[in-house]
Design a protein that fits this description.
By secondary structure, this protein is an alpha/beta fold. The protein has helices at about 20-25, 50-65, 80-90, 115-125, 150-160, 165-170, 190-200, 225, 230-240, and strands at about 5, 30-35, 70-75, 95-100, 130-135, 165, 185, 215. The strands form two sheets. The chain has a six-stranded parallel β-sheet, sandwiched between helices. Helix 2 packs across helix 3. It is globular.
Length: about 250
């Protein structure tokens, strides 16, 4: 069986992985869902100095404290950046990085940089002088990323999402060891064939996935809610395919 560390995307905590965690454990795996500093039950820690390095240290700290090895390290959305950095710092502990509707960014790039200029300006105006990035409105009529979410899931997101420490989005990715851990991508909002073409064309947001295993899970951007069973099955498949097994 495999060992999974599950890192949520922006605005979420370990609670977002509940159904996936239960499914993986029922299949015999070990699963560690995470809440990063400054979010959910740790929202009281969201100071202006909390950033990408803080969240990377959260992941590294869990892996080391729990003495985990051969880890399948899963990063959803914005969680892909601290996952990418943590894998770079712990290459001997990580068997596979799984980017869930995410991907490894080029070194020196921040998540904020991936937004078009007009969106960056809108977000800067919304944030003002603060240090927190507010969650979206979770309005399905205007957001195709919410495809597949029913009213219950949307209500859960509206109740439980918390503001994201801004520096998690604005700090650039740093990879002092070269970031060579094997990777996989589960594409949800992009057709997997489109991703395959972008990898082949050397698109900067997908260039780090050369040689990675690519899987398609067509749904919105929040598959732990919209397709939790199919997501669990894919993660189970990835874990069982690892060349080594966990004791």
């Amino acid at each position: 069986m495999a060992t999974y560390v599950l890192v949520p995307g922006f605005w979420l905590g370990a609670w977002a992985w509940r159904e996936v965690t239960e499914g993986l454990r029922a299949a015999g795996h070990r699963a560690y869902p995470m809440t990063l500093t400054g979010l959910a039950d740790r929202a009281h820690l969201a100071g202006p100095d909390v950033g990408l390095e803080t969240h990377t240290a959260d992941i590294v700290g869990l892996v080391e404290a729990e003495e985990l090895h051969d880890v399948v390290l899963v990063g959803h959305s914005g969680g892909g950046m601290p996952v990418q950095q943590a894998a770079d710092r712990l290459p001997d502990r990580i068997a596979r990085v799984v980017y869930l509707d995410s991907g490894p960014l080029p070194e020196g790039t921040a998540q904020f940089d991936t937004n078009p200029p007009e969106e960056q300006a809108r977000l800067r105006a919304l944030i003002g002088d603060g240090h927190l990035l507010p969650p979206p409105e979770w309005a399905p009529a205007t957001d195709p990323n919410l495809a597949g979410l029913d009213d219950t899931a949307l209500d859960l997101l509206r109740r439980r999402a918390t503001a994201e420490p801004l520096r998690a989005a604005t700090d650039p990715v740093t990879l002092p060891h070269g970031g060579t851990v094997p990777a996989a991508l589960i594409a949800c909002t992009f057709p997997v064939e489109t991703v395959r073409q972008m990898v082949a064309q050397g698109h900067p947001f997908f260039a780090g996935l050369v040689g990675a295993d690519l899987y398609g899970l067509p749904t919105g951007h929040w598959p732990m809610f919209s397709e939790s069973k199919r997501l669990t099955e894919l993660l189970d498949r990835i874990g069982r395919a690892l060349p080594t097994s966990v004791e």
